[in-house]
Amino acid sequence: MKLTKETKILIIGLGVMGGSYAKALTDKGYSVKCITRESSDIRYGLEHGMICYGTTEVEPDLVSEAEMVIFALYPGAFIKWIEDYQHLFSKGTVITDVTGVKSEVVYKIQGILRDDVEYIPAHPMAGRERSGVEFADPSVFNGANYIVTPTEKNTLEAIKLCKALGEELGFLRISELTPHAHDEMIAFLSQLTHIIAVTLMNCNDSEDLEKYTGDSFRDLTRIAKINDRMWSELFLMNKTALLTEMDRFIEEFTEFRNYLANGDGKRMREKMRSSSARRTLFDKPVK
Amino acid sequence: MKLTKETKILIIGLGVMGGSYAKALTDKGYSVKCITRESSDIRYGLEHGMICYGTTEVEPDLVSEAEMVIFALYPGAFIKWIEDYQHLFSKGTVITDVTGVKSEVVYKIQGILRDDVEYIPAHPMAGRERSGVEFADPSVFNGANYIVTPTEKNTLEAIKLCKALGEELGFLRISELTPHAHDEMIAFLSQLTHIIAVTLMNCNDSEDLEKYTGDSFRDLTRIAKINDRMWSELFLMNKTALLTEMDRFIEEFTEFRNYLANGDGKRMREKMRSSSARRTLFDKPVK
In what order do the strands lie in the sheet with B173-176? Predict the structure, then answer.
């Protein structure tokens, strides 16, 4: 299967991410349908040109006509949906997802999925700190990373299809990682950063701090506004990798703390020069 | 003394902060002169309409004619300058500064300063992660906080003058704290955040991470590009307060780590709900 404007696309879950996918694809000329829990979200999606059809029921005909199904659910809900409804897929359907952890989800779903349906996992590395379809905004994909995490069960054709989807969505960099490498990377780049932000926000409850804050504190805590249900699932599903990163962070932080306690300006400066040099690598590419 | 367009203003140190002050004041119609180390910075300041005069020498006449002197030096250099040149001030001169730590600087300088010159300390809570006059930009003051940290040695007149300066520079919120309260606040809001960013940047040197990064990691490490000489001085001058904040952070972070290790999703979610609620307080005021 190749991705064309005629490809019948079904999105499961019209939240902030499903909505952003839907809007990006509809804007490109695709016809996008969806199944989601709340009828108010369907109304919103129709009114804002995200979808051409939506329903709160898992309509058998809708699922069986779909050629590409995109899951934008919480990880646990995604697995449950597959268990409950995979019998409705037509042979040859390709499914993909937006799930932020891979190993725990990918092997489980590929393990239970029918042999005549292919699941090609992907993770769009873009998002917003708010949840809900009203915060959907496909412009967050511009300049962002899209990662496909295939396993030995995947076909080259599906990998290509999934990458083509990432391109249509507007991602800048499309790459491939194993589920395991993805999870290690995400534990550091995304999960650890969210826990740091939450910790920073919680570790000092002095009054009136907001009166004096500068931009650095705001930047470091932007993601402290967090969807607690989704992220606790993601953290628990990536526990081993995340604990490793958290322990590395504590070790490195404690080293700096001890340099300070010892009045060792020289070593603190070395750490700062190292971070300054390395941070340059991460500057956002100018489009 | 009141701040008027005729007030003779002298800035010592034309770096990113001194340059931003100079530009903001010149744009408002003040005549700003400066003393700084590099003649190339003076040329830059003259060419970019920041100053009407600059010199690399501590010219006695220039210092004695100044009514308000703004120090934009590193803390140690500021103290040394006062020791070396305070005999040049005229009686009644008011001096202020931009130094990011207060107790260690304020009491030392007020302790050695002539009785007929007044030092009213201030901290503009705005900056850029780059140093040098070519990064000066007074627009960083818009929407930002400006804190005056007077002691019992200061007069009401000088406090008012210093606040008037903050207003002229374009700060949104002008407030007053004791040097001690300022240092506790800054240890948490600014110094801790910089050390977290440096730590995060240093604690994982896997290759190619930048290929996969999203905006959260970029936001949390923006300030990992850091002026190591200035910040090591600031950290060491605020060691006690900063160690307290670092230890609180480690404790809170470790608590979350242990919830994760124990698979305690409920307690992780409580932490995230608490951080989400508290973060709302820190949203930038819309002008």
Answer: B122-125, B145-148, B173-176
